[in-house]
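Input/output pair, single chain:
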Amino acid sequence: MIPHAEETRVAQRFALISTILALAMAVALLAWTSYVRYRDFEEHQQKLMRSSVEGAAGEIGVFINELRRSARLFADMEATRLRRLMRNPEDYRLYDALQASVKSHFPDAFAFTIADKSGKPYVTDFEGRVEEICVKDMRQFAADRAHSGIYIHPNNAMYHFDIMVEWEGNGKSAGIFFVSFTADIIARILKHGDLPGHKLMLLKRDIPGLIEITSDGARAVLDRDFTLNPDEMRTIGYSVPVEGTFWNLADMPQPELFKNARRGIWREALTVLLAVLAVSAAMAILLFRYHRRNKKLEYLYTHDAGTGFPNRYFLLDRLQRCLHRGRQENSSCALLLVDLGGFRVTSNALLHQRNNQLLVQEAGSRIRRILSEHDVFAHLAGNEFAALLRDADAETAARIAGAVVEALKQPFTADNSATLPKAVAGIAISPDHGEDAETLMQHATAALYAARLSATGLAVYVR
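Output:
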């Protein structure tokens, strides 16, 4: 029984190790898949950010250039009234007419004025809309026409940016036409380019991190600091300069975007892993039940129902294994057949079934105590038993058989009744007495018949 139990333990250990390795591979595969999915997500988001930022930056640049072109056309169209206002800056009716015309052509215009070629405005104040910063820009533009970059001018009335163009009168340069626009028109462009989970914002190029405009509007409407902190600067996903401005357009992913994506990917992986574990557990339970049922059936097939001893089928299976091993390793197997014979009753009757079964169980226990843990014991039928000895020669087999017979000569007691069986044992050894199970069984049976006629109760098969 020991070799079979060892094989079972090896098989169970192999199944356990295989299951653990399979689960480890599943975990590793899920981890790798999750890593790849997150990396693909990052790459996809980077592509989206690049497309969004470059597209919006190009649109803003085109829009600014279009405003400049429209401003030049407007100045050419209104050249007459602009000259009149230049000659008479106190003509408020003329100014109001020009203001209405500006509003008609530029609905998002915040204010306008005209300045001479040196950048000095002819009309100032405008209810505080044209401030010193605007005048400074006009002077710089007058000194260097390249100074036309756009940026946000803070103003108590409205955060705005300025468009300045040169206008002509009588075929020559007459001065500067200046129009201020609200930041909302740029905010609308940013809003159209915003991606889910991202925020587009225009940053002042010469002041790192200073927010100029977002899709919500100019920085004055933001419910936060006007300047990005160092951590926020590091999270900028993509940034490009905007042509014709002092802005950089940047995409800033929301703090939870990648964290939520990573959490979602790992949550899905965990769900899959739990599903795999659940299926594995269900299969393990089914296999365990199947294995337990098979073991029960195997036990019923290979053991005697009355005594629980291994039976003839068990013996034949172990005998075939022993013979196979003997052929491979050039070793021997000794088969002992033991018969208790008739019972000699010393007191009362022991012939009913229950007492007979008790005697058989006691006899089997005595035989097993003599055998080693590597030997095989079986109850064949009635009062017949068998023992299979590994690596035993004729002398060793005879010694063990003698010990068995001697043990079975001792009185048996059941229900206050005693009996003395007459035990005999026949011995056959492979490969001398047979190289297959059937032959060895036949020769061991022949030796058993000879033992009944022997004074010692022992006999070894002789050809």
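Residues 111 and 197 are 36 Å apart (CA to CA). The longest strand covers residues 172-182.
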